[in-house]
Amino acid sequence: MQFEELRAKQSLWTIPDQELRETLRLSIAEVLLPAYMSFVKRFGNLVENEKKPRKYLKYQPDELDQLLGQFFEGQQSVEQKK
């Protein structure tokens, strides 16, 4: 849920400097992806056996990485990529 909130907020933000935008994305990914993959590795089997596993694991790690790649481009750019 927190990722969804963050994604909604940042969809309004634009960073025109490509190098800065990539640096910020990498900084976020370096923290978020290992933590998320650790959670998936540790609890993935338990969650998969639940009635609604997508409630707890909405994204696979590669999907999360793709979404992070859209950060800081503004909502219009994100919508164009869909």
| DSSP helical segment count | 4
Task: From the 3D structure, determine the CATH topology.
Answer: Monooxygenase
How large is the radius of gyration?
A: 14 Å
CATH architecture: Up-down Bundle
SS-derived structural category: mainly alpha
What is the CA-CA span between the terminal residues? 21 Å
Major sheet details: none
CATH class: Mainly Alpha
Uncertain regions: pLDDT < 50 for 5+ in a row? Answer: 77-82
Q: Note the beta-strand portion.
A: under 5%
Number of domains: 1
Give the overall silhouette.
elongated
Beta strand count: 0
> What is the H-and-E element order?
HHHH
CATH superfamily: Exocyst complex component Exo70
Helix content: 55-70%
Mean pLDDT: 84
Topology:
Blueprint: H1 2-10, H2 18-48, H3 61-68, H4 74-81
Helix pairs in contact: 2-3
Task: Walk me through what this model shows.
- This protein has one domain (1-69): Exocyst complex component Exo70 (Monooxygenase), CATH 1.20.1280.170.
- It is mainly α and 82 residues long.
- It is elongated and about 45 Å long.
- It has helices at 2-10, 18-48, 61-68, 74-81.
- The longest helix is centred in the middle third of the chain and has 31 residues, at 18-48.
- Helix 2 packs antiparallel against helix 3.
- The model is unreliable at 77-82 (pLDDT under 50).
- It is built from 4 helices and no strands.
- 2% of the residues are buried.
- The two termini are 21 Å apart.
- Helix content is 68%, strand content 0%.
Concise account of the structure shown:
This protein is mainly α. Helix content is 68%, strand content 0%. α2 runs antiparallel to α3 (61-68).
